[in-house]
Description:
- This protein is an all-alpha fold.
- The chain is about 65% helix and about 0% strand.
- The chain is built from ten helices and two strands.
- The chain has helices at about 5-15, 20-35, 45-55, 65-80, 80-90, 100-105, 115-125, 135-145, 150-175, 180-185; strands at about 130, 130-135.
- Strands 1-2 form a two-stranded antiparallel sheet.
- Strand 1 and strand 2 form a beta hairpin.
- Helix 3 crosses helix 7 (about 115-125) and helix 8 runs antiparallel to helix 9 (about 150-175).
- The longest helix is centred in the C-terminal third of the chain and has 25 residues, at about 150-175.
- It starts with a helix and ends with a helix.
Amino acid sequence: MNENDALKLLKEYSKNKPWMKHCKAVSQLSIHCGNLFSKTMEVDLDFLRSAALLHDIGRYKTHDPILHGIEGYRLLMGLGHPREAYFSASHIFFGLTSEEAHQYGLPRETFIPKTFEEKLITITDFLIEFDKATTLNSRFASLRERNYDNKYFLSRLDDAEIKANDFLKEINDQFGVGLEKIASSVLV
């Protein structure tokens, strides 16, 4: 899928609601980072664009912190975009177990960001609160505050935070750059 097709889908399903700005910000930061990292490794910039733009497309149906990824998967699979569909589900918690996937009506398989691009979009999503740059600590605190009454979500959020911090460290170690600093300079 190309960027124009992804933008068209995003616009059609978001109806220009505020969450569309978040998707565009995630895409902007992901592409900026992808271009930066493509100097030393191969990066699929087309997938970065489309998946980042569509990662939250399930919000057309629900704003539930888990179910929006499931609904995005269903929509994108139905439209014939399996790669973006997989990512829509796998960005939740930095990955779903096969049991969780089955519980939510998905195929009984793990939905975990596997490629560098999938991990990069997931971490950039965590570094953006609405459409503004933030830190991982602030973002996870905000998610906990907004979902204080959802015990299951909170229990899984701890694991997601560990995975996010591990990937943030991996990026810093591999490329010598801090993604939080990049986010704050790109999303002004």
